[in-house]
Amino acid sequence: MPKRPWSIVWVTLSVLSLGALGIQDRRDLYSCDLCRARKVERIHSVWGVPFERSERAEVDGDPGIGHRHDWWRYSSSFAYGPYGALGRGWACHTFRYKDRTN
Ligand SMILES: [Zn+2]
């Protein structure tokens, strides 16, 4: 029986587990103090390379015509490894908007 297929399986498995160890899930919360909008941005990356990015509004603001959101990050959390098994972190401001209001 040739040994080669087994070593290929083994290499594949180690590459997969190495990849899993490098998984990072980051979640940033932003606010715009001008129109009170808020958004959540999630970035999944493996070894620092983003492969999935999603963004959704948490609160829709009331932007006037020509308004450009002044996004300000008020909270940030991240998890390392599959399901955060290798560590988690979290940092945030005590207020949600740049003008120190909630
Ligand atoms: Zn805005």
The helical percent reads 10-25%
Bound molecules: zinc ion
The biggest beta sheet is recorded as:
5 strands, antiparallel
Structural class: alpha+beta
Gap between N and C termini, in Å? Answer: 68 Å
Helix count, per DSSP?
Answer: 1
Order of helices and strands: HEEEEE
Low-confidence stretches: none
Considering the chains and any ligands shown, give keywords for the structure.
alpha+beta; five-stranded antiparallel sheet; 1 helix; binds zinc ion
Care to describe what's here?
The protein has one helix spanning 4-21; strands at 23-32, 37-46, 49-59, 71-80, 87-92. The chain is an alpha+beta fold and 102 residues long. It has a domain at 22-92. A hairpin with a 6-residue loop joins strand 4 and strand 5 (87-92). The longest helix is centred in the first third of the chain and has 18 residues, at 4-21. It starts with a helix and ends in a 10-residue tail after the last strand. The model has no long low-confidence stretch (mean pLDDT 91). It binds zinc ion. Zinc ion is lined by residues 32, 34-35, 37, 61, 63, 67, 69.
What's the SSE blueprint?
Blueprint: H1 4-21, E1 23-32, E2 37-46, E3 49-59, E4 71-80, E5 87-92
Antiparallel strand pairs: 1-2, 1-4, 2-3, 4-5
This protein binds zinc ion.
